[in-house]
Write a structure and sequence with these properties.
Elements: H1 2-28, E1 34-36, H2 37-61, H3 73-98, H4 104-129, H5 138-152, H6 157-173, H7 202-217, E2 226-228
Antiparallel strand pairs: 1-2
Helix pairs in contact: 1-2, 1-3, 1-4, 2-3, 3-5, 3-7, 4-5, 6-7
């Protein structure tokens, strides 16, 4: 039964990441009818890195490599880098699609799909893992940050950079877990936050999303990096 649950967990993790990638690609890799090659490549690299991590976890779990391999510092950094890359791409993609003006129908569709996917992940993991269910995973984080981005998108890039740095500084400065209600676990790790198989609160995970928003402001207007979909 334990092996079955672990196998289901890895499958859910894979589906979670691929769902996220599908939402981002369907919504935000366009400049009218055009694609940005490097952004597509960045998404592809992030997906490949995620597959490598989960495959390594499976090798460890079934005894083909040393126990605790993926819990070593370098692998935890690798895992965090993968999550940060998805959030960076989500922030960049939001500004690419909605930085100039909000496309309300597209945004409603994206937020609706994210909300349903996040709720579905929470429900499924509740029945499988009980108290260790996903409450604020990466899809929940992207959903919440996308809503916040509606109000942040007109801020000067310098102020967005300041908010990104402040978010990290608060995370490093606050005594975590913070003595607070579990109702604040969407914002920060609290003393009442249950362990979760995927947990990405605003502190510190808003930072790569905000940096992605800033990075889009500096997208060079070079047609050589863009190609028409019809080609």
């Amino acid at each position: 039964m334990k092996a079955f649950k672990q196998s289901v967990k890895r499958t859910l993790d894979m589906r979670l990441f691929f769902t996220q990638v599908r939402h981002m690609m369907s919504d935000a890799n366009k400049i009218q009818t055009q694609r940005i090659f490097w952004l597509d490549h960045a998404r592809g690299i992030a997906v490949v890195a995620m597959v490598i991590f989960h495959f390594t976890f499976d090798l460890m779990y079934f005894g083909y490599i040393a126990p605790g391999t993926v819990y070593r510092l370098e692998w935890r950094i690798f895992e965090s880098t993968i999550a940060a890359s998805f959030l960076f791409i989500a922030g960049f993609s939001f500004m690419l699609s909605h930085g100039g003006s909000l496309k309300f129908s597209r945004l409603r569709r994206k937020l609706g799909l994210l909300a349903m996917s996040a709720a579905g992940i929470s429900c499924v993991t509740y029945f499988i893992f009980g108290p260790n269910m996903i409450r604020m995973g990466i899809l929940h984080s992207i959903l919440l940050l996308s809503v916040l981005a509606i109000f942040l998108r007109h801020l000067h890039w310098g102020l967005l950079t300041f908010l990104a740095c402040l978010n990290i500084l608060l995370y490093l400065w606050l005594p975590l877990p913070l003595e607070a209600s579990a109702w604040l676990q969407w914002l920060v790790w609290t003393s009442e936050t249950e362990f979760s198989v995927d947990y990405r609160p605003i502190l510190p995970w808003a930072t790569p999303f905000l940096i992605g928003m800033v990075a889009q402001r500096f997208l060079p207007n070079d047609r050589s990096i863009i190609t028409d979909r019809a080609k």
